[in-house]
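Listing S7. Sequence submitted for prediction.
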Amino acid sequence: MNQKIVNIALSLAIIVLLVLNFSKKGSSTAVSNGKTDSTQVLKFAYVDLDSLQEKYLYYQEKTKEFNTKKETADRDLNAAFQKIDNERVAFIQRGQSVTQAEAENFQRVYQGKMQNLEEQKKQLENNIATEGMKTMEELKKTMNTFLEEYNKDKKYTFIFSFSTAMDILFYKDKSYNITNDVVDGLNKAYKKVNPTK
């Protein structure tokens, strides 16, 4: 949580510095890009990540795959836990006919099985989390690649992302929202690679 707050604060600081830096140069938004004879107009745009998640086919497919794997893993683990618990209940139902040695042996085996399942559960959770992070990195790479190509014509200086989960833009003019263009372009590119989707 602290890292998230630091990231938000740093992002806000960068935005404030950019605004202050460019507003000092007068009312013009032109700024030198290192060449004495050319200037570049600052153009900003943003992508609404919430809308992107709702409309981008690749993201929807990966989310569905991720949820299916998670549900399958949960179901398998619950079945294994239930099986072990059923063994425990059956053993307890034997009642007085159980010897001390049998009880100690069962307790040792039962604890071993439970520990095994807990380790499997942690491993599955780690695998799922790692896969989720890889998917998000892949999505980010796909977005960056697309935006580089998209921006060759549009010439935006900055393209920000916006999400209700991490709302660092206090105000956004909807006329600079390029989400629909981005989603359309990403979906077209995805359908070229996956024509059955």
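Caption to Listing S7: primary sequence and predicted structure tokens for the chain studied. The chain has one domain: 43-193. The beta strands are 30-32, 39-41, 44-48, 158-162.
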